[in-house]
Design brief:
Length: about 150
């Protein structure tokens, strides 16, 4: 049985997680001058806002949180990309569709939560592919040895 639908949804999820990886990696590897410029803009915004005057949150803490969040998103999206490729290999030629379905479902749920919902559309695509891979029945060819034994 052809597993084209599952492979297409897996590739869609793979592309989406690839985009999440790319943009998070870009934020993570921002140049120092860009960080300084961002820091100055944040400082100006906090100084101009009268509600933020008594706030004890520093701009450095915000930048560190963004950096840490970007690193976590990069790691989870890289895991999603690798496991998506593994699932596509399992689906190709109908080798291990059940294993691929389980991998896609678990990866879709875990990485959606791990990317702080930035990968939700990729996770949905992985879930659709995984559920389809588990639910779809493959057409089994009758075994000639068993059928010849039953006829006697």
């Amino acid at each position: 049985m052809s597993r084209v639908a599952e492979i297409i949804f897996s590739v869609i999820g793979l592309v989406i997680y690839g985009l999440v990886f790319f943009f998070s990696f870009r934020v993570l590897t921002m140049q120092e001058d860009t960080k300084a410029q961002f820091k100055q803009q944040m400082q100006d915004a906090m100084n101009s806002n009268p509600n933020a005057q008594g706030n004890s949150v520093s701009v450095d803490k915000i930048i560190d949180a963004i950096s840490t969040g970007s690193l976590v998103i990069v790691i989870f999206s890289a895991i999603a990309i690798i496991l998506g490729i593994v699932a596509i290999v399992f689906l190709k030629g109908n080798k291990k569709p059940k294993a691929a379905g389980i991998i896609l479902i678990v990866t879709g749920v875990v990485t959606t939560l791990g990317t702080i919902a930035f990968g939700i559309f990729g996770g949905i695509a992985y879930l659709i592919a995984g559920i389809t891979a588990l639910v779809r029945k493959s057409k089994n060819k009758p075994n000639t040895e068993e059928s010849s034994v039953e006829n006697y």
